[in-house]
């Protein structure tokens, strides 16, 4: 049984917006912190943003600041990533990942549970 399921990826034109969703298991990940990562072609996976159960947020590096907003609806067991003004460099496979409660860090190795990813392509 999948514990994290991403959705909402697709193709968008430069300057456009997209909202990704991460459905997490209420039984095993209800208290977990959830983060979004991106892996562009030929590059390492990088953290975009993270949110705790209580709503505390962290945004990492230039990948997240100013163009991505993370939010969480615990009643729906879903974490969202809203992207604005997307550019070609935002193209990649977007993953959500879970770690222990209260922890938000940018290192992928601290996240033991991962979804399968959803593809985002920014192109005209």
Break the fold down into its secondary structure elements and pairings.
Blueprint: E1 4-7, E2 10-12, E3 18-24, E4 33-39, E5 46-51, E6 57-59, H1 61-64, E7 68-73, E8 78-83, E9 92-99, E10 113-114, E11 118-122
Parallel strand pairs: 2-11
Antiparallel strand pairs: 1-3, 3-8, 4-5, 4-9, 5-6, 7-8, 9-10, 9-11
Structure in words:
Helix content is 3%, strand content 46%. The chain is built from one helix and eleven strands. The chain has one helix spanning 61-64; strands spanning 4-7, 10-12, 18-24, 33-39, 46-51, 57-59, 68-73, 78-83, 92-99, 113-114, 118-122. Strands 2, 4, 5, 6, 9, 10 and 11 form a seven-stranded mixed sheet that branches. It has a four-stranded antiparallel sheet with strand order 1-3-8-7, with no helix packed on it. A hairpin with a 4-residue loop joins strand 7 and strand 8. The radius of gyration is 13 Å and the shape is globular.
Beta fraction? over 45%
How would a crystallographer describe the biggest sheet? 7 strands, mixed
Instruction: Report the end-to-end length measured between terminal Cα atoms.
Output: 37 Å
Helix content: under 10%
Round the mean pLDDT to the nearest integer and report it.
93
Count up the helices.
Answer: 1
Unreliable residue runs = none
Shape: globular
Radius of gyration: 13 Å
Strand-pairing-aware structural class: mainly beta
What is the subunit organization of this protein? Answer: single chain
Number of strands: 11
Order of helices and strands: EEEEEEHEEEEE
